[in-house]
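User: For documentation purposes, I need each entry recorded in a consistent format: the amino acid sequence on its own, followed directly by the corresponding structure tokens. There are two entries in this batch. Please keep commentary to a minimum and don't merge the entries.

Assistant: Recorded as requested. Entry 1:
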Amino acid sequence: MKPVPQSADQILNLLIGGEAGQGLVTVGQLLAKALVRAGYAIVVTQSYQSRIRGGHNTYTIRTSPGEVQAPQETVDLLVALNAETVDLHRSELAPAGVIVAGDKFGPADPNCLKVPYSQLARVKFANVVALGAVAALLGLDLELVSRAVADFFGKKDAALLEQNRQALQAAYAWAGTQKVAFPKLAPIKDPVPRLMMGASDAMALGALSAGVKFYSFYPMTPATAIGQFLAGAARRMGLIVEQGEDEIGVLNMALGAAFAGAPAMVGTSGGGFALMVEAVSLAGMTETPVVIALGQRPAPATGLPTRTEQADLSFVLHAGHGEFPRAIFAPGTIAQCFHLTRRAFALTEKYQTPVFILFDQFLADSYRAVASFEVEKLEPIQVGADPAAVAVPYKRYAITDNGVSPRLLPGQSAHLVVADSDEHTEDGHLTEDLKVRKLMVEKRLRKSAGILQEVVAPELVGDEKPELLLVCWGSMRGSALEAAALLRAKGKRVATLHFSQVWPLRAEQFLGILQQAGEVVMVESNAFGQMAQLIRRETGFEIKRKVLRYDGLPQTPEQIVRELSS
């Protein structure tokens, strides 16, 4: 069991709100980057509507000198780029909260810093003026913030960079003369260098470290950013990134690339994956390795395309006609996004079956401060078998004790590689011999035993012999951990059990933990309690009490505690 995280540090929650097109994401990213460089931890939560301009969007940064792992409901600093933001979020302010708003729409409140945007800079630099005012209130070093601005604008236009710097400096100086009281962040001496990174970037880096050579996708929130990152790295890293005409073609292209020997990955969301299901079954029959990253969002149909949910677990678990093995990962941290993506490539190559990575919009758009990944000691992932070790005539689907057949790459040796999407003989030719059919089904399913032995065990954190155990998976990890801390502060013995791999399940890794806890509660973001259903199906253990959320917003520690208190 991992020890309980301890943190008595100052924690601030900053919400930046405005319309799409006002530059609030730019402000948020620059501020978050400056905070990370100054040594603070962050959790970013983005809320945006499915439109290019207009609509109400927010960029929230929770920050602390110590550890933070989840979003927070109350707001300490409300940065309003328009009047609507004040109207919508003023009720969320903490008792000592401060509003930063324009002098033309800011409320008459002693805790409101009314910024004279038009006096400090031209209107196009209003977002950078807001950044300067907020940086001064937080006590961030001006030069550090200025470097973040330079990194963002410097390569684009030197004149534009200078104008942004001037706006930043003017706002910072002006805010320093104001009387609004706000607790400055405690400075961190000699901060440890960390990266500001989101889940999409981490998954892309994990794929690169695994040797990905082909990535195909059709743009679909929240998975698009993986393809954008890889496209930017494609020339340097020697891979092909293909935006397909539709999701049907996307996975079939990836299977073709993988068959030829290029480690392949696709990214999509639930609606796009629905079109890929036939190709998933093709991967199972042809025993072709492929990694599928699926970003969950509210459904059915288009649903809420820019919000978050965890409702695709059952879909992914059963996708594809017929029976064949698979593995499903569900990272809960940025580091897990990197390492589990890499693990997915190793597993799909070893067992020649599709492997999935389930994430969601909240995690995809949530930046964190992370330590650099140690990549020097990572072992390369071997693609295909050694032709010299394979007997002639080559049997692509040779029946073996573990179900894994030697996979040779076509055109890379004198061996003839034959594959078939119909049922086939060991050498890859179509057959309707029913005895062979039975043997081939059993061969493919024997791979499940090997996959089962490599399952990542769930992470147990908290008190020994807890009276309350919070069970969660994927992105719910941080909120469950912080909810446990809140309950622990009230005198309860609490632990959390987080699944970062949700299929297959090994009962011996966690069933005893469930049975020994006083009360077990499942925390997940869907209406059915899909993970609770899966645990009951596989182990017989019923988690009767559930904290479920399915309104499109992420679970928060406060909400979990409220649900448990009701």
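Entry 2:
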Amino acid sequence: MTRSRRAGARNMRQGRAQRRGSGLGRLFGAGQYPTRTLVTGWSAMGVTFLLVAGALFGYVKYRDVLDGINHINVTDLGKRPPKFNNAMNLLLIGSDSRSGRNGKIGGHRGITGQRSDTVMIVHISPGHSHIYVMSFPRDTVVPIFGCAPEPGFAGQTAAPGSIEQLNSSFAFGGPGCLWKTLEHTTQIRIDDFVELNFTGFISVINALGGVEVCLPTPVVPSSYDHLSLTAGRHFLKGYRALEFWRLREDFGLGSDLQRIQRDQLLMVGVVHRILKTGVLHSITKSYSIVSAIVKAHALTTDAGLTPTKILEIGRSMAGIHGGAIQFVEVPTIQYPGNHNWVELDGTQDPKLFGAVAHDVKLPKVHKGKRGKSKGKGSSKGKHNTAPKLLSTSKVSVEVLNGSSVQGIAGATETALTARGFHVLGASNAASSTYTGSVVEYSSSADLAAANTVAAQLGKNVTLQLNSSVTAGTVTLILGSDFKALAPQHFRAKSPGNLAKQYNGYTGGTNVCKGYGTAFAGA
């Protein structure tokens, strides 16, 4: 798109905002909506919600709570990118709606409508061994796609060759339009969305008992911001935490990219708090958080994110550790038509998005060639006796009950699916006299897949060739001594600290040492 076409698209977009009213004209014209009034931290709590919801499984009241979530039926997504594996990709949206209690919390009661002030894609790997949280600046320019109306949103007409800000896709078309825009832009297949508002942020922070932040410099009250904090550690609760995240042009560099870094540091603090308080393993604590969000009418999801699906996600991640969670800022460059806007970095983002879509390690920055060691540390020529294992998403397995214990095949089918396996089905074996479990495979070509399944049982499992098994699949026959799958060892599958490459953090970051540039200029 040429610079003149971009300028024309921008002028057209300004006119659209003004014609539609609802105060949105200020977002694009000379009287832009002041960025310092926006809050960017609360949608991080969508991650918290999904992490803690799993512990509600079996709690007698969980359905009453989860059924209180607002749902939107998203249908207009157009031609969608393929799904390459059993990973789950969630779109997290922070809405700045001023409806109800949000008006008192967010201020500026004359502002109507909603904007997506925070936009993230959360990638939960097959097997749930690691999580990537990618933050997209709200001022990123994107194509204008046609989007059908949704409850509370008018929809928008496609404008080929023109652009809009990412938060405008949500403001005009709703969460489904933002979903569609990001799928088409990143080519990452998104499974569901989670939207949280101001009251949701406060509800989560208070239910957790507060969150720790650490400042290298004091926060001094200004003509707009009234928060006062000394340098060092602080433990903030609901509204005070919200005030901290309302620090804008009067603090630091005032840029959206810097706000993303502070947002990610808050999420690191939330992860620390979750792990420290044992929320993932406490039904009572999990229930209090999810219940608080729902009672505040703060949570909206798509109709496909059912209570059962939420519970499965949470249960499968109960053993994850902080270092396996990585917060990544999507690389951008300044948009030439407006110094306040950015556009995706065409040299880095395709590799990043492709790596996430295929669930492979994020691409590393090459800093020059390194010579290969040929010393004693070299493993060249040595025989590795450890069995070769595959990614669980590449293994197709049928589960059979070879014992008289009722229900174990179905339960194992669910557990293997949660770990990323492609499970072909569960039924009874021809015989119910198996004591130990058996993994059958048709030829040496499927040995690695058989080893991958056997590794999930840990012990008392035998590998057995069986030419009648369909090539490309394996069969797991459960014996009477089978109780449950062996625990997953998440640390062995950690993708490493690659967040630093993209100006982000891991869930294990020390919030008092790993600032990066989050507080530069303060």
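Summary note for entry 2:
Residues 17 and 25 are 5 Å apart (CA to CA).
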